[in-house]
Each structure stands twice: as structure tokens, then as C-alpha cells.
Amino acid sequence: MSDAPSHDTAFVRDAMLPPAPAPASSVGPLGWLRRNLFSSWLNAALTLLSLALVAWLLAAVLPWIVHSSWTASSLSECRAQIKEAYGPEASGACWAVIRERWAQLIFGFYPSELYWRPILAFGIALGGMAPVLFPGFPRKVLYLSGAAPFLVPWLLWGGTVWLPVAVALGFVLGYAAFRLVTPFGGAILGTIAAALVPVMWWFWLAGPASGQLQAVLPLGIEPVSSRSFGGFMLSITIGVTAITLSLPFGILLALGRQSRMLIVKSICVGVIEFVRGVPLITLLFVAWLLLNYFMPPDTNFDIVLRVIIMVTLFASAYVAEVIRGGLAALPRGQYEAADALGLDYWKAQRLIIMPQALKISIPGIVSTFIGVFKDTTLVSIIGLLDPVGFSNSIRADVNWNGIVWELYGFIAALFFVFCFSMSRYSMYLERRLRTEHR
Amino acid sequence: MKKSIIPGALTMVACAAASAGAATLDDVKARGKLNCGTNTGLVGFAAPDANGDWQGFDVAVCRAVAAAVLGDSSAVEFVPTTGKTRFTALASGEIDMLVRNTTWTFSRDVDLKFTFVGVNYYDGQGFMVPKALGVSSAKELDGATVCIQTGTTTELNLADFFRVNNISYEPVPIETNEQAQQQYLAGACDVYTTDASGLAATRATFEDPSAHVVLPEIISKEPLGPLVRHGDDEWADIVRWTLNALIAAEEYGVTSANIDELTATVTTNPEVNRLLGTEGALGGMLGLSPDWAVKAIKAGGNYGELFEKYIGQNTPIGLARGLNAQWTDGGLMYAPPFR
């Protein structure tokens, strides 16, 4: 009975059907189009409308971009060339101004035979940041990260090699003071010594010491004054310094604001609220004007340095508040768990609190950074020639007077590259740190 | 008690600054460079060229002073200043002199404590309109929309002019000259008003300059000139007489082309001899070398040569000499005698 096929059933298929390919309308480019652009009548209409808009924009802008002149040496020559090449009605971009002045827009007045120095400095800064930003880098590159803060300013401003060495020595002295004082005076006195000794060294001794060393063993490269800085080099110098310094300062300010120690707390609240309460332009004017009046005469306190300090202060205050938001978002249990494990304050912050708080704060921190980088263009108001300021100076040349969109387009494109990479990096970082829902 | 400390400290700082600025000449010589405040960019007056060298009519004054004092017209550190930072830059000692098309006014001279040493360009506020508007006089501008830079003396002059003539206007505030150009060309305003030299420079950049006219009315006096801090008369004298030397050189026919010839031999004109240092000791009285004026004139040429090179009829800006001609040609350029 069992081995005879049952004849009750009319037909039993004994082989599986091969899987048929999905209908042509739901796979491949066609399927993608249907799913994403034409999934309903409304979406189809919106798609067509957007396409029309894009086409209209391109039709308006593309001829202007393409019908251009790259070789002219003045605006009127540009116009003549465009008229000759594309007919009397054509109007096109005069990219020749970018060809002639791109180096100025990027390096400002930096001597052209020394362009390798800012380029190398930029490379070192990138290389120094890489192991901090990406985990895949060999750890040995961290030595470069340690050296970069001293190498980069030396390459940019030039001068004796002993000054950055003397500045670096300050950190060594601070560490030594900490190790020497802690066994006798305890952690608090050690920390105070570690802060005081290097500051005193930098203020009073580092300059003369480097001068002496230079006299004994002259080693150095040609100095370049801050007045020569301009264009994107200036923006990047101010922006990168302010960004890298404002993160640690911001963390300290945020922690200080949550501190239970009254003086620390009041100072941090005061700094944050004051700096956030005044516009950046005001701070820049303070950097330019008031510091000049208050400094003793004949002190030459570098203007770019003054601006960097002010922009760093400004960014730190904002970063501090973003991080405070991250700290507030952590459940109380995390703090209590850290206490229950017997961790001291700094260990709890380093191992439990900060990794979580910073992760929450990434989008806010990065948008602060992007904002700071774009705000560097405000320095044109106090007469420093950043890209926007320089575009004005180029326009003051008789040959290029009247050129607007080409210069702004070039500047916007470069700013877009920097800001877009920052925002992409922040998204990458968020993905990498998304640990809880894997 | 506490209150008195801050003004006291300020006074001390001010005194210290004044005493530091007292010997600007020594500072400049010790530094080996002249810190000259100039514009961040103004067509014809100050602009960096493709090599990053500053060029222009105002810049030429800086170079002449550097040549007179240091013997090298390139020994200048140009400090670009904006309208907001120029006076504090000078007062705080950041710059030794300011040549930034700055109008000589009572309050700037007296209240802000500066010394205007002369005038290198007599300007005045004018109007530019499209030819299609069919206007031939500013008095016909009743009800017009006017593009005007905010926060400048031009804004006040404009209000005065329209009030005096009892006609109305609608201001379109703009921030920079290039913004004004865009707005004006786009038709956002009927009239653009600023200094006549600026109007000429702006008009020269238009695709069709002949479609726009600069109206004949000049509604303000804008004597533009170099200035220094109060309190250092020796330094003010140096800047003043360097400018005068450039103007006098044009009057006496001393040019950068024939100056070597004129210096080589004592000429028959004693005024030229005193100017060029081949007779008398005028340079020594200033604390400079006897050939200070020769160096200043060689830096770029005499006043007329500079005018033609940077803003004159043969440049795209194409300004006529007008008020800036020598007094012998009916202008206002008049250098006091060199004796």
C-alpha cells in the first residue's frame, strides 16, 4: 500500500519549480525608479517637477560656466574673448581671475618660494590627526600627532627651531613637576605645580632660553610674519587650531559647570555665559583693538595669535554647552554605577561618562566645528585677508574690478569641500560608535 | 576708590602709548620698515597685484615716505585696515601713518587727535544714473531710489542735499561697493551715490559704460589725505613734506625720468636745488639724508606721474585732474615753498 502511488490525487509535482526572475518592473534600474521616484501619482508629479527645475537651473547656469575665458588678463579682455568665441549675446564666467589669483586666494601674501611650508604643515596636521580620527592607523603615527602642534606653527611662521623645542620643554617640565611634587604634596598640589611650572616657563624663560640656544647653535628657517598670512591658509590655520583646542577646553568647561566646587563652577559658568553672550565679531574687535591698548607698548602680540585665542574661546563655550547636553542625557545610573565600582572622579569620567556623553554630542560638536570654520571669514572685518577679504582686494585691482560670482563660486566650492568632509566624518564616527543596538 | 583706578590705568596706558609714539622716526629706523595703514582694497588707490605687491595712488604715498626715510620704497609693511579699524590702528601705534582715502574732517582732526598732513586727492560725492532715466541734474531726482553705503559720511551728505533742495528720496542701504554695483545694475535703485572717483571706477567696470552717466553735481567736499598721530610733530613734518615734495616736483618739472640728470648738476632753479638737496640742507632739518626728496620722487614719480599711472585718463578709471591739477593749471595742488 505504502509504495504504490496514490491515484486519488490527479497530479503531484515531484520537482521544485526553478525560481523565476522578479518581474522586470520591480528590479534593476526600472524597479528602482518605480520604487523611489514614481511610486504614486503624487510622487511621479513631484519627480517630474523637480527634474524640470534642475534642468531649468542647469540651462541657466551651465552656459555661463562653460562659455568662459581662462586666458584673459582683465575683465574687459574676458568679455571681448567670450563675445568673440560665443557670439555677441553670450555672457560667461571669467575664470581667468581664478587662474591668475588662485595662489593668493589659498596662500595670501605668503612668499611663493615658501609655499611648500604651509603645504607640508597641512600634511603634517592631517597625518597627526589621522590616528586620532581613524582607528585603523598604525599606533606609531601617534608620535607625529604629538609633534604636530610644535612642527606646524614652526613651519608656518618659521624662525628658530629652538622656540618650539622650548615650548615643548614646558610640557616636559610640567610632567616632571607633577611627578616630583605629588609624592610630597599630594595630587592637588601636584596638579597645581604641573600647571604653574610650564606657564612660568613659557612666560619668562622660554623666550630667552630659545634665544640663547639660537645664539649657541643657530638653526632655523626664514621667518614669515603673520601679515603675510591670508586666504584659505589663514582660515584653515585659525579654524583647525580653534577646533582642536576647543574640544578639550569645552570638555573641561562642561565638567567645571557640573562641578560641586563653587569657585570652579562659577568661573566656568561665567566664562561660558559671557562668551556665548557676545557676538564673535565683538570678540574679534576686542582682539584687534582693546588688546592693543592694554598691552604694554612695544609688545608685539601677534594679531593672528590674538584672533586664534578669541575664536578658540568662542568655540569652547559652544562645545561646552553641547557636551553638557550629552552629560545631561546620560541616565543617573551611569554615574552611580561608576561610583559603585569605586572609580575616582577622573577615571569615572574617562572610562564611563565621557565616552557615552561625547558619542551623544557628536552631531552637535561637529556642527559647532563647521560653524566655527565658516565663522573664520569674519576676520575680514578687522582687516585680515581671509578668502572673502581677499576677494575684495582682488576686485580692487583695476583689471578685475566688477568680478563677483567667479570669486565667490571658487571660495564657496573650497569651503564646501572642507565642511562636507567634516560632516561626512561625523556620520562615519556615529556609525562606528553605534554600539548598543548591534 | 575703586572707580578711580580704571581711568587712572587708562591714562597711564595712554601716556605710555604717547611716549612710545613720540619718536616714530626712530622706531621706523630701528624696525627698518614703515608700517603703513592702507585700504583692504580700493580700485586705483590700494590693491595687491598678482605678485602680492600693493599698488595704487594711496600706496604710492606710503612708498614715497619709506623711500625718504629708509631709502627703500619696498621697506613698507602694508597693514590693510577697514573703515572700522583704521583709526584705532593708528592711535594704538599698530601703524605709523594712515593713507586710506580718509576724509579730513574737523572731528577726526581735533576730537580723534590725529594730524592730517595734507591732501593727496580732492574728492567729492557724486551721483550715477542710467542714461535711460533721462536725468541731467541731481535736482531732478525727486522720488528716486538711491543706493547708499551705510555708516559713511556719504549717507549724511545725501540727506543734507535732498533736504536743502526740498526733494524726497528712498534710500537702499548697502554694505560694500561691489554689492552696490550688483544692486544698481539689477535695477534695485535708480541712483548710485558715492565719491566721484569711486563712481568713475565702478562705471568703468560695466559692460556698457556709455549707458550710465555721472551727474555734474558734486555735493560734498572730501579732501582725502595721509594722517599721523597727534604729538609727534617731527614725524608729521616728514610725511607732510614728502607729500609736498611729490607735488612740488610736478610743479617744477622734476620727473622720475629726468631726476638723475637734475641731481647730477646744480640747476639754475634754486627751488629745485633745495628740493633735490644739491643746495641747502633741508633734509638734515627733517633728520633725513640730503637726498630724501630724490628718493621719494624716484619711488614712483612725482604727483602727476602717480596720478596718471594709477587713476588718470589713460587708466580704465580715467579720472580727469580737475581739482587735483596744480594750482598753476587751475587746480588746488599747491605745495608751500621749499626754503
UniProtKB/TrEMBL annotation, chain B:
<keyword id="KW-0813">Transport</keyword>
<keyword id="KW-0732">Signal</keyword>
<dbReference type="GO" id="GO:0006865">
    <property type="term" value="P:amino acid transport"/>
</dbReference>
<dbReference type="Pfam" id="PF00497">
    <property type="entry name" value="SBP_bac_3"/>
</dbReference>
<feature type="signal peptide">
    <location>
        <begin position="1"/>
        <end position="22"/>
    </location>
</feature>
<feature type="domain" description="Solute-binding protein family 3/N-terminal">
    <location>
        <begin position="33"/>
        <end position="262"/>
    </location>
</feature>
<dbReference type="InterPro" id="IPR001638">
    <property type="entry name" value="Solute-binding_3/MltF_N"/>
</dbReference>
<comment type="similarity">
    <text>Belongs to the bacterial solute-binding protein 3 family.</text>
</comment>
<dbReference type="InterPro" id="IPR051455">
    <property type="entry name" value="Bact_solute-bind_prot3"/>
</dbReference>
<protein>
    <submittedName>
        <fullName>Amino acid ABC transporter substrate-binding protein</fullName>
    </submittedName>
</protein>
